[in-house]
Amino acid sequence: MTLTEETMTLTEETAQESPHSRGRPGVFARVASFMLSPERLLQQTGFGMAVAIFVDAVIIRCLIVPAAMQLMGRRAWWMPEPLARLLPKVELEKH
């Protein structure tokens, strides 16, 4: 299995288990419900926030981030050496 296949498998598993991925439709619905208010300010705020959440969820997270990670390849997971020295070494599996 190549690094790309491992990365894709890991991101697919993480996306399925992430509580954040389940929360977006609920937040979108709550914010969009502001548009049902008779107050003009709440309608405008609800519309603006609903559009922002939709753009974030669909365009940025589903299109731009995966495309950028594919283009960067292994460099997407690169860590600067000074930061690597500061962080503890975590081994999930010992070989």
Structural overview:
Helices cover 72% and strands 0% of the residues. Helix 2 (19-32) runs antiparallel to helix 3 (40-72). The chain has 95 residues and is an all-alpha fold. Mean pLDDT is 78; it is low at 6-12. The protein is elongated and about 60 Å long.
Q: Kindly name the structural category.
A: mainly alpha
Task: Please describe the biggest sheet, giving its number of strands, its sense, and whether it closes into a barrel.
Answer: none
**Based on the structure, what is the oligomeric state of the protein chains?**
single chain
pLDDT averaged over residues: 78
Estimate the global geometry from the Cα principal axes.
elongated
Query: What integer value in Å does the Rg equal?
Result: 19 Å
Gap from first CA to last CA: 16 Å
Q: Number of helical segments?
A: 4
Contiguous uncertain segments of 5+ residues? 6-12
Question: What is the H/E string?
Answer: HHHH
* Beta-strand residue percentage: under 5%
Helical amount: over 70%
Number of strands: 0
